[in-house]
Write the structure tokens for this entry.
Amino acid sequence: MAFINLCFFIFLLASSASACDRCIHQTKAAYFSKASALSSGACGYDSLALGLSGGHLAAGVPSLFKDGAGCGACFQIRCKNPTLCTKEGTRVVLTDLNHNNETDFVLSSRAFAAMAQKGMGQQILKLGIVDIEYKRVPWGQTEIVGVDVAQVGSSNWSFLSRNHGAVWDTSRVPQGPLQFRFVVTAGYDGKWIWAQKVLPADWKNGVIYDSGVQITDIAQEGCSPCDNGTWS
């Protein structure tokens, strides 16, 4: 029986929006001493995660992980100690599920130290846990909530199921080269996105293929305060 197992990375572009898409949240963050702990996490990115955002990775609580739909989400995070930390903070990519109920995020040590003022990275690492505020930001501000596959030229689409994290699979694999379409969050709703490129007829599991998809849609939140500015 043919079987397909896919891990999707969707590249996102910033766009303007009338509703709030950058709600500010207050919480705490801790860190893992090794980024590999996050790369081998629940999203299924494996070693590919180490190349995301310069190794600035994060595990998020279930409300951020969203049963895997939150995988690849990007957040701007800064600690709230102005003596120790910068106003800009750092950007992280969500690659894992955080089971720690004391913090919303567990960061890679590189991301955790990047919140600090120049020369104070070791001081913030010694704290272990810090108070932070964060907001979701573009280039990871929407979610894949559905994936379909069909033979190129066919309108007979089959749905994939989320196996775990960002990994989708199906045992109903069409013959020949394959095309894909995705349902992504857009505004307060969802929309279909068609992949510009396809898998060749001789595709293989474990090989990376470029879908050619770039998404400008941004999922909206209803909140106050709303911060559409740049932290600097």
